[in-house]
Amino acid sequence: MNRNIDDDRFPEWRPFVDAVQQRRPDAGTWCEAWTVRDIVVHQAGNAEEIARVLAAALEGEPVGTRGFEEREGPLRALSDADLWDALFDRMATLNGVAAAADDVPPDIDVAWTGRTMKVPWFAEHMREELVLHGWDITGDDAAAQARLAEPWMTTHSVLAVGKPLLAKGARQLAQGEHVEARLRAAGSDDVVVRAEADRTAIELAEPEGPATLETDPAARVLLLWGRRPADPSRICSRVGPQTLGRVRGLLGGY
Questions:
Q1: Which regions in the chain score pLDDT beneath 50?
Q2: Alpha-carbon gap, residue 237 to 235, rounded angstroms
Q3: Considering the entire predicted model, what is its pTM?
Q4: Which label site among 12, 95, 159, 173 has the fewest CB atoms less than 10 Å from its CB?
């Protein structure tokens, strides 16, 4: 089996593998009802689908993105050992496709899950999945926080994933209800979110005026993905519980 996975291309791969190996497959995680095994299923499906869609685009024959159940269902039927092999196999395939994409102009748009992403964002998206779901397994250890705090994690979350990250929370808004917030982390641009029941927007902007909430870069990424750090004091706000509650409700992640 080809297991060539480039640590330079996917530097978050080895920490993710180490995190999984330190826990039982049936151990719980910070990702709601998912166990470690559920996360491995999800990651194998992610790697397979990212590689499939990107490879088809590189060949000039684009394909649609399959839903989670279609790509994860067969993986759930595997034994733990076969699932582990499948994860490595699919990551190695993605590694090869991502290497081939190095020769493609980076500004080409490729359809992905109701939006488009630039070609380099596909490998970057897998990297983000490894960071986020690695945190789901380990929680707030220092290494996981450092990976979450990398500036590219915020940029990718906003530019490449922002639209679906707000969709779940926006569905809970009543017609005519409007939510707008500035999420601030020292030394970086604000993340500005706006949402109504039928539309959302998310962007990076220079800090201006009061922030809706202030936190560190790692916790802000967790908030964007519908998660929260174990220590609630990392999130500070003076807007009051009603406004802050509406913002936190909007940040529901997938």
A1: 1
A2: 7
A3: 0.95
A4: 159
CATH number at residue 108: 1.20.120.450
Look at residue 239 and tell me if it is in a domain: yes
Judgement on whether residues 135 and 165 belong to the same structural domain of the protein: no
Q: Are residues 66 and 28 in the same domain?
A: yes
Instruction: Note the pLDDT of residue 1.
Output: 43
Q: Same domain for 173 and 121?
A: no
What CATH number does residue 167 fall under? 3.30.1050.10
Tell the burial category of 112 from Cβ atoms under 10 Å away from its Cβ (0-12, 13-18, 19+).
buried
Alpha-carbon distance of 124 to 139, in angstroms, equals 22
Are 167 and 193 spatial neighbours (Cβ–Cβ below 8 Å)? no
Nearest Cα neighbor of 126 from 40, 13, 29 is 13
Q: Would you state the pLDDT for residue 103?
A: 94
129 phi-psi bin (left φ>0, alpha ψ -120 to 50, beta other) = alpha
Question: Would residue 202 count as lying in a domain?
Answer: yes
The neighbour count for residue 248, using CB atoms within 10 Å, is 18
- How far apart are alpha carbons 210 and 183 in whole angstroms? 10
What is the model's pLDDT at position 3?
A: 75
